[in-house]
Amino acid sequence: MSPPLNLVQTPSIPPATADVVVIGGGIIGIFTAYYLARRGVSVVVVEKGRVGAEQSSRNWGWCRQQNRDARELPMATKSIDLWEQFSAESGEDAGFTRCGLLYLSNDDEELARWASWGKFAKTAGVTTHMLDSRQAAERGHATGRAWKGGVFSPTDGTADPVKAAPAVARAVMKLGGSVIQQCAARGIEMEAGRVAGVVTEAGVIKTRTVVLAGGAWASSFCRQLDIRFPQASVRQSIMSVAPIDQPLPGALFTSGVAATRRSDGSYALAISGRARVDPTGQFLRFSPQFLPMFAKRWRSLSPGGLEALRSGHETMSRWRLDAPTPMERMRILDPKADPAAIRATHRRAIELLPELRNARVTHAWAGYVDSTPDGVPGIGETPQVPGLILAAGFSGHGFGIGPGAGHLIADLATGAEPLVDPRPYHPSRFAGSAWGKVADF
Ligand SMILES: Cc1cc2nc3c(=O)[nH]c(=O)nc-3n(C[C@H](O)[C@H](O)[C@H](O)COP(=O)(O)OP(=O)(O)OC[C@H]3O[C@@H](n4cnc5c(N)ncnc54)[C@H](O)[C@@H]3O)c2cc1C
Question: Ligand 1 — pocket residues by CB below 6 A?
Answer without folding.
Answer: 23-29, 46-49, 53-56, 58-62, 184-185, 213-217, 221, 236, 238, 327, 367, 369, 392, 394, 396-400
